[in-house]
Specification:
With 228 residues, the chain is of the alpha/beta class. The protein is 44% helix and 21% strand. It has eight helices and seven strands. β2 (82-89), α4 and β3 (108-112) form a beta-alpha-beta unit.
Amino acid sequence: MRKFDPAEPELMDRPQPVTAELEADLRNLRQLNRYFGSYRLIEYFLRKWIAPGSSVRVLDLATGSGDIPRFVVDYGRKIGAAVTVHAVDQQRSTLEIARSLSADYPEIDFRQGDILSFAPHETYDVVLCSLALHHFSEPDAIALLRRCRELSAKYVLVSDLRRGPLATLGVYLLTALIFREPMTQIDARRSAERAFSFDEFRSLAERAGWKNFGHARFAFARQAIWLE
Protein backbone atom coordinates (compact mmCIF):
# COMPACT_ATOMS: atom_id res chain seq x y z
CA MET A 1 0.00 0.00 0.00
CA ARG A 2 1.19 3.48 -0.85
CA LYS A 3 2.25 5.58 2.14
CA PHE A 4 1.71 9.28 1.51
CA ASP A 5 1.31 12.03 4.10
CA PRO A 6 0.92 15.53 2.62
CA ALA A 7 1.89 17.00 5.98
CA GLU A 8 5.36 15.42 5.63
CA PRO A 9 6.88 16.63 2.34
CA GLU A 10 10.24 15.33 1.27
CA LEU A 11 13.11 17.36 2.66
CA MET A 12 14.10 18.67 -0.76
CA ASP A 13 10.59 20.09 -1.24
CA ARG A 14 10.67 22.26 1.86
CA PRO A 15 11.53 25.97 1.57
CA GLN A 16 15.25 26.37 2.17
CA PRO A 17 18.30 28.34 1.07
CA VAL A 18 21.13 26.89 -0.97
CA THR A 19 23.11 24.72 1.43
CA ALA A 20 25.87 22.14 1.13
CA GLU A 21 23.30 19.52 2.13
CA LEU A 22 20.92 20.49 -0.68
CA GLU A 23 23.76 20.59 -3.20
CA ALA A 24 24.90 17.12 -2.12
CA ASP A 25 21.37 15.76 -2.39
CA LEU A 26 20.89 17.12 -5.89
CA ARG A 27 24.30 15.77 -6.90
CA ASN A 28 23.23 12.34 -5.65
CA LEU A 29 20.01 12.56 -7.63
CA ARG A 30 21.97 13.34 -10.78
CA GLN A 31 24.13 10.27 -10.19
CA LEU A 32 21.04 8.14 -9.63
CA ASN A 33 19.51 9.45 -12.86
CA ARG A 34 22.70 8.73 -14.78
CA TYR A 35 23.42 5.23 -13.51
CA PHE A 36 19.99 3.90 -12.57
CA GLY A 37 17.85 4.28 -15.63
CA SER A 38 16.45 7.79 -16.04
CA TYR A 39 18.72 8.94 -18.85
CA ARG A 40 18.41 5.66 -20.73
CA LEU A 41 14.63 5.75 -20.45
CA ILE A 42 14.41 9.32 -21.73
CA GLU A 43 16.86 8.71 -24.58
CA TYR A 44 14.71 5.81 -25.79
CA PHE A 45 11.89 8.28 -26.48
CA LEU A 46 14.10 11.13 -27.72
CA ARG A 47 15.35 8.83 -30.48
CA LYS A 48 11.75 8.45 -31.67
CA TRP A 49 10.56 12.00 -31.16
CA ILE A 50 13.47 14.28 -32.12
CA ALA A 51 14.75 14.01 -35.68
CA PRO A 52 18.10 15.29 -36.93
CA GLY A 53 17.76 18.86 -38.18
CA SER A 54 14.40 19.44 -36.50
CA SER A 55 13.40 22.29 -34.18
CA VAL A 56 11.79 21.08 -30.97
CA ARG A 57 10.35 22.92 -27.97
CA VAL A 58 10.50 20.94 -24.73
CA LEU A 59 8.92 21.56 -21.34
CA ASP A 60 10.45 19.85 -18.31
CA LEU A 61 8.25 19.96 -15.20
CA ALA A 62 9.79 19.53 -11.72
CA THR A 63 13.22 19.98 -13.26
CA GLY A 64 15.27 19.82 -10.06
CA SER A 65 18.90 20.72 -10.77
CA GLY A 66 18.27 20.63 -14.52
CA ASP A 67 20.15 17.49 -15.47
CA ILE A 68 17.30 16.20 -17.64
CA PRO A 69 17.12 19.42 -19.71
CA ARG A 70 20.90 19.36 -20.13
CA PHE A 71 20.71 15.74 -21.24
CA VAL A 72 17.98 16.61 -23.77
CA VAL A 73 19.94 19.57 -25.13
CA ASP A 74 23.09 17.45 -25.39
CA TYR A 75 21.12 14.89 -27.38
CA GLY A 76 19.81 17.59 -29.70
CA ARG A 77 23.30 18.99 -30.23
CA LYS A 78 24.61 15.52 -31.02
CA ILE A 79 22.10 14.91 -33.80
CA GLY A 80 21.95 18.48 -35.11
CA ALA A 81 18.48 19.33 -33.80
CA ALA A 82 17.60 22.79 -32.45
CA VAL A 83 16.20 21.99 -29.02
CA THR A 84 14.99 24.62 -26.56
CA VAL A 85 13.78 23.75 -23.07
CA HIS A 86 11.62 25.58 -20.56
CA ALA A 87 12.42 24.01 -17.18
CA VAL A 88 10.06 24.63 -14.26
CA ASP A 89 10.47 23.99 -10.55
CA GLN A 90 8.87 25.47 -7.45
CA GLN A 91 12.05 25.60 -5.36
CA ARG A 92 14.00 28.85 -5.75
CA SER A 93 17.22 27.45 -4.23
CA THR A 94 17.11 24.37 -6.45
CA LEU A 95 16.75 26.58 -9.52
CA GLU A 96 19.70 28.67 -8.38
CA ILE A 97 21.80 25.51 -8.39
CA ALA A 98 20.34 24.42 -11.75
CA ARG A 99 21.23 27.74 -13.37
CA SER A 100 24.78 27.61 -12.05
CA LEU A 101 25.22 24.13 -13.54
CA SER A 102 23.74 25.20 -16.89
CA ALA A 103 25.89 28.22 -17.76
CA ASP A 104 26.89 26.54 -21.03
CA TYR A 105 23.28 25.80 -21.99
CA PRO A 106 21.63 28.96 -23.37
CA GLU A 107 18.94 26.69 -24.83
CA ILE A 108 17.49 26.20 -21.33
CA ASP A 109 15.20 28.78 -19.71
CA PHE A 110 14.62 28.03 -16.02
CA ARG A 111 11.37 29.28 -14.53
CA GLN A 112 10.10 29.21 -10.97
CA GLY A 113 6.50 28.14 -10.54
CA ASP A 114 3.96 25.63 -9.31
CA ILE A 115 3.85 22.93 -11.96
CA LEU A 116 0.18 22.26 -11.20
CA SER A 117 -0.79 25.78 -12.24
CA PHE A 118 1.98 26.61 -14.72
CA ALA A 119 0.23 28.39 -17.59
CA PRO A 120 2.52 29.50 -20.43
CA HIS A 121 1.18 31.23 -23.52
CA GLU A 122 2.23 28.34 -25.72
CA THR A 123 2.23 24.59 -26.07
CA TYR A 124 5.28 22.38 -26.49
CA ASP A 125 6.33 19.60 -28.81
CA VAL A 126 7.49 17.45 -25.90
CA VAL A 127 6.44 17.61 -22.24
CA LEU A 128 8.59 15.70 -19.74
CA CYS A 129 7.98 15.03 -16.07
CA SER A 130 10.49 12.74 -14.39
CA LEU A 131 10.45 11.31 -10.87
CA ALA A 132 7.88 13.81 -9.64
CA LEU A 133 4.48 12.15 -9.51
CA HIS A 134 5.17 10.39 -6.20
CA HIS A 135 5.58 13.80 -4.54
CA PHE A 136 1.83 14.41 -4.96
CA SER A 137 -1.46 13.17 -3.57
CA GLU A 138 -3.61 11.15 -5.97
CA PRO A 139 -5.87 14.11 -6.87
CA ASP A 140 -2.86 16.34 -7.53
CA ALA A 141 -1.09 13.60 -9.50
CA ILE A 142 -4.16 13.29 -11.71
CA ALA A 143 -4.27 17.07 -12.13
CA LEU A 144 -0.59 17.07 -13.10
CA LEU A 145 -1.11 14.38 -15.73
CA ARG A 146 -4.03 16.35 -17.13
CA ARG A 147 -1.85 19.47 -17.24
CA CYS A 148 0.94 17.60 -19.06
CA ARG A 149 -1.50 16.56 -21.74
CA GLU A 150 -2.90 20.08 -22.11
CA LEU A 151 0.54 21.64 -22.50
CA SER A 152 1.72 19.29 -25.25
CA ALA A 153 1.01 19.61 -28.95
CA LYS A 154 2.61 16.24 -29.70
CA TYR A 155 4.37 14.10 -27.09
CA VAL A 156 4.22 13.54 -23.33
CA LEU A 157 6.50 11.37 -21.21
CA VAL A 158 5.91 10.93 -17.48
CA SER A 159 8.26 8.56 -15.68
CA ASP A 160 8.67 7.63 -12.04
CA LEU A 161 9.61 4.92 -9.61
CA ARG A 162 7.56 1.72 -9.57
CA ARG A 163 6.61 0.71 -6.04
CA GLY A 164 7.35 -2.85 -5.00
CA PRO A 165 9.44 -4.92 -2.60
CA LEU A 166 12.49 -5.08 -4.88
CA ALA A 167 12.46 -1.31 -5.40
CA THR A 168 12.19 -0.72 -1.67
CA LEU A 169 15.04 -3.13 -0.97
CA GLY A 170 17.20 -1.55 -3.66
CA VAL A 171 16.65 1.96 -2.33
CA TYR A 172 17.46 0.90 1.22
CA LEU A 173 20.67 -0.81 0.10
CA LEU A 174 21.81 2.12 -2.05
CA THR A 175 21.19 4.63 0.74
CA ALA A 176 22.87 2.41 3.32
CA LEU A 177 25.99 1.68 1.28
CA ILE A 178 26.55 4.50 -1.23
CA PHE A 179 24.25 7.52 -1.00
CA ARG A 180 24.41 7.96 2.74
CA GLU A 181 23.87 11.71 3.12
CA PRO A 182 20.90 12.29 5.47
CA MET A 183 18.69 14.24 3.05
CA THR A 184 19.17 11.69 0.27
CA GLN A 185 18.70 8.75 2.61
CA ILE A 186 15.48 10.09 4.13
CA ASP A 187 13.96 11.31 0.87
CA ALA A 188 14.89 8.24 -1.19
CA ARG A 189 13.34 5.87 1.32
CA ARG A 190 10.27 8.05 1.57
CA SER A 191 10.04 8.11 -2.23
CA ALA A 192 10.04 4.31 -2.38
CA GLU A 193 7.04 4.28 -0.05
CA ARG A 194 5.22 7.08 -1.89
CA ALA A 195 5.73 5.73 -5.40
CA PHE A 196 2.76 4.34 -7.28
CA SER A 197 2.51 0.69 -8.26
CA PHE A 198 2.29 -0.24 -11.93
CA ASP A 199 -1.49 -0.62 -11.79
CA GLU A 200 -1.94 2.58 -9.79
CA PHE A 201 0.15 4.53 -12.30
CA ARG A 202 -2.02 3.34 -15.16
CA SER A 203 -5.17 4.18 -13.23
CA LEU A 204 -3.95 7.75 -12.67
CA ALA A 205 -3.53 8.26 -16.42
CA GLU A 206 -6.97 6.86 -17.14
CA ARG A 207 -8.56 9.08 -14.50
CA ALA A 208 -6.72 12.06 -16.00
CA GLY A 209 -8.43 11.39 -19.31
CA TRP A 210 -5.44 10.00 -21.18
CA LYS A 211 -6.45 7.91 -24.19
CA ASN A 212 -4.38 5.47 -26.25
CA PHE A 213 -1.33 5.95 -24.07
CA GLY A 214 1.66 3.69 -23.64
CA HIS A 215 2.68 2.25 -20.28
CA ALA A 216 5.69 0.06 -19.62
CA ARG A 217 8.12 -1.12 -16.98
CA PHE A 218 11.75 -0.10 -17.28
CA ALA A 219 14.94 -1.20 -15.56
CA PHE A 220 15.78 -0.25 -11.98
CA ALA A 221 12.16 -0.16 -10.81
CA ARG A 222 11.17 2.59 -13.24
CA GLN A 223 7.95 2.95 -15.17
CA ALA A 224 6.65 5.40 -17.73
CA ILE A 225 3.45 6.47 -19.40
CA TRP A 226 3.48 8.39 -22.66
CA LEU A 227 1.38 9.93 -25.40
CA GLU A 228 2.46 10.15 -29.01
